[in-house]
Amino acid sequence: MEQWTRREDERLLTGRGRFVADIEVPGCLDAAFVRSGVAHGVLRGVDCAAAREVPGVVGAWSGADLSEPGPPGTAASGFRGLPAVPYTLLAGLSTEEAVAGREWPALARDRVRYVGEAVAVVLGEDRYRAEDGAAAVSVRVDPLPAAVTAGAAATDSVRLFDGLSNTVFRGEAGRPIDDSVWRRAAVVVEGRYRQQLLLPSPMECRTILAVPEGDRLTVWSGHQMPHRLRRELAALLGWPVDRVRVVVPDTGGAFGSKSAAWPEFVVVAHLAVRLGRPVRWIEDRLESMTAASRGRGQDQRVRLAADAEGRLLAYELEIEAEVGAYPQLGAGLPMQTALMATGPYATPQVHTTVRSVLTNTMVTYPYRGAGRPEAAIALERAVDQMARQLAIDPAELRRRNFIPPHRFPYRTPTGRCYDSGNYAAALDLALETLDYPGWRAEQARRRTDPDALPLGIGLSCYVERSGGEPGGLHEFGGVEAAADGTVLVRCGAAPAGQGHETVFPALVAEALGVDPGRVRLVEGDTDEQPEGMGSFGSRSAQVAGAMLRHAAQLLLDEARERAARLWSVPTEAVDWSDGAARLARGGSPAIELAELVRATGPLRVDDRFEAGMAFPFGAHAAVAEVDPELGTVRLLRVVAVDDCGVQLDPVIVRGQAFGSAVQGIGQALYEGIPHRDDGVPLLASGLLDYLLPTFTEVPAIEVRDTCTPGPGTPLGAKGAGESGCIGTPAAVVNAVVDALRIADPDLLQMPLTPDVVWRAARAPKLVEAAR
Fold first, then answer.
1. Contact, 597 vs 558, CB < 8 A?
2. Are the C-beta atoms of 118 and 106 separated by less than 8 Å?
3. Which of 407, 46, 379 is nearest to 193 (CA)?
4. Which domain holds residue 662?
5. Which residue, 379, 409, 411, 419, is CA-closest to 397?
6. Which of 1, 19, 132, 277 sees the fewest Cβ atoms within 10 Å?
7. Residue 270 sits in the same domain as residue 316
8. Alpha-carbon distance 62 to 78, whole Å?
9. Do 585 and 712 share a domain, yes or no?
10. Model pLDDT for residues 180-195, shown as the tens digit of each residue
């Protein structure tokens, strides 16, 4: 019999997974969207008449067509028209300052603001007929100047919304640093870094299937937050939430991109209710690359000061973020960068400022790491630059400045309270695993060999925040024991490949002392679990896992009380072990869980549990060989040492770390969304234009770990899913800078394409002391 690493692997790897596209519903219509090919312009007209004549097309609508109330006598008769897209903003970013006057229409009506914005929708008897109808829709747009970068948009010379500034948010963390600090420092380094726009690129793109069922609507979607989607769709329909059910089937990845009610979702739900028929939309890859969310997108200016011994004195980070055409969650996201700017160092003064600016691109949204990679890359590049200026080994400079273990909990100058850490241990393990002295010796040898390709070693140490922010560190769920010996676990999370189906039942089985094979997990269904937060921000083990351990303990407490009543003894006289209640002093009687249920009736507990914030950390290292004549970078070795506290399933944690490191390599070397001056993204050839690292480009990656249990959760677990995206990019870039020894490292901006590297290799070289 095949042995599978995870429970879900057999189903998923043998083609028996059930995704939204696999769900068969009689009478289902497929949706195809007509999208703007212009980044910014006045929408003069959308003519759907020809599309309605295409065989197999059931209907075609523009935003203007759906602005009228629903037909009388239908479930949509109370509609006032197609609702706008619901906004979700981070705490501290008020709706009034960011959203007022900046409505995001589900179908553009008067103006288009990014390439890919939906201007019409066509429903067909199948996807092919819907696509044929979409091709027949005529769209007229008078182009306007576009502002694609934050720098261009910040001038307000091109306004995305008439009479309103493009700047939608300003924030800061820490206190301004007096000029005297910079004047008195032995060394001050400065840099300007670009965090390019990225595509999350999950295997499965966005999906939704809306099925009217009497006076209810059932929505199937590969979504990270089904309870949020239910609330938002119910509000858009003007219904109570119990009239909407959201179900998350198997989902092919998310990385943050599947946690909102996108414009297409609003249109599909609206039309399903309006027509009284099921409607499905399955996004294809090119459509996703054009119209799905982006990640990152920051221009940064940094300044770092140190004394002659390399003790860091002050750090300043200015962030100008491009957040897309509408102020969604991404508008406040750069504050995560600001708050985590301190990294693992005991820098006494840190000040960060943020300006979020609307641009003529699709919205920026959380993408794996969400603000923390941007913080780590800026700081770690500056630290390496400082090491070069002081002629101190970059590993030693980091050691001198780490927050020592005895200072935890540690409040940073930006207001974060780090819970625990041993940063030097992670760095030491990374250097040992890499064979740091050996590679330094090889580097020195190559520098004396005129025929050898330059070699560089890059380091990156990081701290991240996992689980969420205060007010969102809770989860809902329950545990139910059945008379046949099975255990049903309900959870408000929703998996997108993290291995919940394996980890959560095993966690509950261990707590109850039963066979994991008898424990079944139900999640991603708002009817089965009425309340929930979802899966995002590396919170599965830290928050949802802690909730399930808590619920299992509550069930055991109730089981012990029932056994005590059966035996007419005090509750404290009853122990629980090996799946059975037993008298504390040994001997009989003993009663197993299933027998107890048969004797006393149904046994179920449901509760809400809140965990604390956690701050995972790690140290990553990379060795890169650079060909200055070709501009190519070959990664010879990558080491990722991460500390996520107690690991509930080390194999799954290792897989998360490896996959995240690959995405980090993608950001450093390959991925990016180039735009023409008129705002059109240069992605017409799909993944031939947007390069993802493949098996050929992925080097040997060694994943190691240290363990500093998190005090904010009873499991001691911290988030594990985003480490590589945070720690790996700076290590790779620092390795290339180290190889080329250029005097101006700002010339190396991600992605380090052959053109970027080739040009940097011809820049003046840095004169530095031999290590």
1. no
2. yes
3. 379
4. 419-466+615-771
5. 379
6. 1
7. no
8. 20
9. no
10. 999 999 999 999 999 9
For the CA atoms of 638, 374, 405, 738, what is the dihedral angle to 10 degrees?
40
Give a yes or no: residue 1 inside a domain.
no
Q: 684 with 728, same domain?
A: yes
Give the other-Cβ count within 10 Å of 496's Cβ.
27
Same domain, 135 and 150: no
Q: Omega into 409 within 30° of 0, i.e. cis?
A: yes
Residue 224 CB partners (closer than 8 Å, separation 6+): 254, 256, 258, 259, 494, 496, 534, 535, 536
User: pLDDT exceeding 90 applies to what percent of the chain?
Assistant: 90
CB 354 within 8 A of CB 335: yes
Q: Return the minimum-mean-pLDDT range out of 437-441, 740-744, 751-755.
A: 740-744
The last residue of one of the domains, among 555, 579, 610, is: 610
Three-state SS letters, 480-534: EECCCCCEEEEECCCCCCCCHHHHHHHHHHHHHCCCHHHEEEEECECCCCCCCCC
Same domain, 111 and 244: yes
> Tokens representing 1?
């019999």
The H or E element spanning position 725 is: helix 723-740
User: What's the CA gap between 316 and 353, in Å, rounded?
Assistant: 8
Residues 6+ apart with CB under 8 A from 367: 198, 200, 255, 256, 257, 293, 294, 295, 296
Query: Same domain, yes or no, for 478 and 449?
Result: no
User: How many structural domains is the chain composed of?
Assistant: 4
Average pLDDT over the chain, rounded to an integer = 94
Give the whole-angstrom CA distance, residue 210 versus residue 246: 9
The one-letter code for the residue type at 549 is R
DSSP letter for each residue of 109-157: SSEE-STT-EEEEEEESSHHHHHHHHHT-EEEEEE-----SHHHHHT-S
- pLDDT tens-place string over residues 74-97: 555 556 689 999 987 654 555 456
CA separation for the pair 655, 671 (Å, rounded): 21
User: How far is CA 69 from each of CA 47, 73, 271, 349, rounded to the nearest angstrom?
Assistant: 20, 12, 12, 57
Euclidean distance between CA atoms 559 and 549, whole angstroms? 15
- Residues 122 and 119: their CA atoms lie apart, in Å, by 11
| List of residues 6+ apart from 127 with CB closer than 8 A | 30, 32, 282
In a domain, 768, yes or no: yes
Nearest CA among 492, 494, 463 for reference residue 722:
463
Domain for residue 414, yes or no?
A: no
E strand or H helix that includes residue 567: helix 546-567
Over residues 311-332, the mean pLDDT reads 95
- 692-733 tens-digit pLDDT: 999 999 999 999 999 999 999 899 999 999 999 999 999 999
Please check whether residues 372 and 387 belong to one and the same domain: yes
On whether residue 410 sits in a domain, the answer given is no
> Under 8 Å CB-to-CB from 562, ≥6 apart: which residues?
581, 596, 599, 600, 603
Residue 250 exposure: Cα atoms within 13 Å on the Cβ side: 17
DSSP calls for 143-156: E-----SHHHHHT-
Distances (CA, A) of 762 to 445, 629, 741, 742, 756: 22, 9, 11, 9, 10
| Angstrom distance (rounded) from CA 631 to CA 742 | 14
544 and 487 in one domain?
Answer: yes
Residue finishing a domain among 234, 265, 291: 291
Largest CA distance in the chain: 88
521: CATH: 3.30.365.10
Q: Taking a C-beta distance cutoff of 8 angstroms, is the pair 752, 648 a contact?
A: no
DSSP, collapsed to helix, strand or coil, labels residue 178 as: coil
Please say whether the beta carbons of 300 and 378 come within 8 A: yes
Instruction: Say if residues 42 and 110 touch (Cβ distance below 8 Å).
Output: yes
CATH number at residue 79: 3.90.1170.50
